[in-house]
Structures are given as structure tokens and as C-alpha cells.
Amino acid sequence: MRIFIALAVAFLPFGTIASAQDSEQITALKAEVTQSVEDNQKMVQEIVDSLFSFSELGFQEYETQHYIGNILEENGFDVTKDVAGLPSGWWATWGNGGPVIALGTDVDGIPKASQKPGVAYKDPLIEGAPGHGEGHNSGMAVLVTAALALQDVMERDNIPGTIVIWPGIAEELLAGKAFFTREGLFNDVDAVLFVHVGSSLAVSWGKARGTGLISVEYTFKGESAHSAGAPWRGKSALDAVELMNAGWNARREHLHPLQRSHYIISDGGDQPNVVPQTASVWYYIREMTAENILENYEKLNKTADGAALMTDTTVSHRVVGGAWPRHYNKPMAEAVNENMNAVGMPDWDETDQVFAKAVQALADTEQKGLDTEVAGVREPSEYPVSGGSDDIGDISWLVPTITLNYPANIGNLGGHNWRNTIAMATPVAHKGSTIGAKVIARTMVDLFMKPELLEASHKYFNDVQLAETTYAPFISATEKPAIEKNVDIMAKFKPQLKELYYDANKYDTYLEQLGITYPTLPE
After folding, report:
1. Which has the higher per-residue pLDDT, 523 or 244?
2. Most buried of the four, 18, 68, 185, 198, by CB within 10 Å?
């Protein structure tokens, strides 16, 4: 029987034998990098906890830059800081030649989202301070751990290719990635693996659910005067802002139901007895397509012009950021899905589930606990689904891209809230991020070892995604990043935050450093 089998194999085409050998090697490498991530869970935990303690807002992610940059440099990466006009940004590379696989994730926090981790009721670390109410403190742990696992096997087996690690700066302002694309950082990249915290293990392809947007700030200028002594001599910039907002709110009735638009008054004057000579309002204009975003943006500009005419003021505007609607790559998503199913969900224990249900009760939502099944690959919806935005959309129109959602937070908490901070330096975040790192590491093996996957990804990208669409960023060629945003807030809170930075040399976890019992539940 052995002779018969040997003869049969001898007459197989060479490519078939080579393919079988390649498949065996890929399977072995995937097992190896998965185990490497498993063995490196301590790094995952330390990165998650450290970035949580920094609690940095958009454009001010300097501690994160320094911390992650040092880890990467210590492991042989070339790290370039202050890229694309973003002082807190970086571009880190390791390896030689192609393919070039870029790993990205967002790193900024949410204003006024400070919260003690593991405590299932409101208890801020610092009252009024920022916090990681979106969970962006966890993504770099996923990417760095996965990259180091690949680095080991690529060095040993002389596997060609380059790994890039880059941050989503000021994602909450949708104000970073378009500058990366405008400056050509992704011109030589073959594929992008992006990760975002969630409560499930999921990926999608095609047109993503949610919107794109333009973020724009309008500034009106008038004339000051004594509000009681000579109000007729004033030209109120604040009146112009209020009239603009009233006009836009009336127009909403006649916009498509899938649009989303919202604003804050970023400058409302100085004090009541002075007619405001300057005032500003900051808008996010969201829609399902780039064309509709630009159409509503032009309508908003006209509304601003009308408000200026009514108040004898002048108006100017500045595009703070933009995000194209996202489109994800089908072949890459299918590869990720295979790896998600191979890795599976975290091994949540009863403590994790009790904690999650307590936090969900706090949010007045269904107490489902933590997901235990892989959500899998989501196909494009038959009907458009509105919602949030992410400026990974810009990159998705330049390079074949997917976003992996990994289960490092608790579901159904509302988002952008202190409740979403609670789990982000606990075993929930640590376990979920470890799972995400395993999936990314395995998918990197696919991309480096299967040229046919990259070929199929680029064919889908060129023949399907770009068939009727040409990308151009919403920011102009001269627009500069709004790096002044959040400077004052961080200047106020950073001295207090520094006192609470996680010290991994003294404490096993951030919970231990803070003296918090996991979980701490309401009495």
C-alpha cells in the first residue's frame, strides 16, 4: 500500500505537491503565531492598561506615541514621528520588500469619559477628565502583539515583506487619516488590516453600515458693543451662529432620513454684557455617499452665508476633517473570517459575565452579558443603514482594506460614554484584545504567504470597488490639521492624569495599582 501511494504521489503535478507543502507550512505558521500571541498576553495587558491610563484626546496622543514608539524601536522597527502634519502621529516599519501590510487602529479618547475600570457604577478617576469611552486604548495591543509574532517567524524563515504600524490620530474628530492619504503614506502599501474594539468578533465586506462625513467649523465676525449701553452699535456673531443653527434645524425636515448632522457652539462669546464680536459653531455633516455629503455641505455653507447676511457679520469656515463612506475588501474579509472561526471567542468566566450584566443594567439595556459565539462575516446590507463614521473610509478607497471588530468591550452601552470606559482596563479588554491579536497574526500569515489572496484582493478592489468611483479627500490640498483642538483640555487634566499613569514595573495590572476589586458591583 505504501508503494502504491508513493507511485500515485510521484505522478501528481509538481504544483500540486508544492501547493500541499505550502498549505502545511501556512497551517504550521498560523499555529505558531497564535501560540506566540497566547504566550505574550502580558504585553497585551500592559499596553491596554497603559494607554487607558494616558486618556489622551485627539491630536494630543503624545504619551501613546512615546510609549508605543519605544516598544516598536526596541523590537527593530524604524519609527518616524510627526508625519503628515500630525505631531502626535507616527509611521513605523519593519522588514524588506513586498508585500507591504499596514496595520492600523485608533488611539484617542472621549471628553469627560473618565471612569474607574471594573467599577459598575459611575465613579470617575478624575471628575471631568477624558477617558477611553470608545475603547481605543486596546487596538495597539492587538497590532503590536500580532506584529511581533510575525516578526519572529519572518526573520527565522526569511519570509520577505514589510510590516507597517500606524495610528488613527484624532479619529473622534474624523481629522487624521485623510491627511495620511493626502501625503501619500499608503501609496506603496499592498493591504491594510485595521482593527476596532467592539463586543463581537466580526468583519464585513462591501459598503459598510454607517456614513461618511465632513467636519467643518464656521466662524462669524461682527462688532462688539456694550450689551446694555449701546447694543445698536453691535453686530452679534453669536446671533449669526444661532440663526445658522435655526436655519439648519428647519432644513432637516427636508433632508433624506439617512443623513445625520449635529453641532456644538465652540465659541459663544466672552460674557453677557459684551456683544460677541466672534462666535463659532462646529458641524458634522453625515450622509451615505460622498456625493450626498458634498451636497449637504454646500447647503450648510449657504445657510451660514444667509445667517451672516441677516446679522451684518462675515463668515469663514474651515474643514477640520472628513471621512469617506467605508468599503471593505471581500477576499480579505473572507480570509479574516476563516481565522476568526479558527481562533474562536474568549474564554469568559462567570466573573466576566456577572460584571458585563451589571454594566448593562447600569446602561438600562438588555442584560445579555458577553458574546460567546463568533459573529462572522457580514455581507453588504440590501438597504443602506445609517449611523456613525470612521475615517478609515478614506484609506479603504486607496488600498484593499478590512476592519476587524474584536470583543474587548461590553455590548449595548450607547457609545461615547463613561459606561463604555468601565471594561477597558479589565480582563474583558485583555482577553478580547488577545483574541483580536491572534486573528490579525493569522491573517498576516495569509497575506505574506498567499500571493493569490493579494491578487484576488486587488482584483476586487480595482474591478468592483473602483468600477464607478474615484476617490478624492474632502480636505483641500492646503488644509492643515486642527492640532490646536484639545490642547487646553489636556493641559488642564494631564498633571492629574500623570499621577495615575500605570506603572507595570510595580503592579501586575492597572486594577491592582488603583486598588480596585474586579468586579466592583453596586450594593
Report:
1. 244
2. 68
